[in-house]
Model the fold of this input.
Amino acid sequence: MDPFFENARRILDTAAAADTASETTIVLTNEGGLRILADNDWPLERLVAHLGARSAYRVSARRGAITVEGRSRTQSCRLERVRYPIPAGISQLLPAA
Done:
């Protein structure tokens, strides 16, 4: 699997296990370093360009879901995991797959 997407998946797994509610931005530098920024609202593509980073990922928890948005110079992704099961009554309102 592509390292960019594998990093996003690992970050999502870790965030889901930690059950955290704060927004965090994780930046992977070209030298292999890691920077963690709390409550950073810069767009990820600008953050990657400004820091000359390899990639950046933003973790957020809202509305019962954990989301990881990722951005590199050439790729982007958004992964989301529902934290709580959808109640039975609501699932009937969803379209069939």
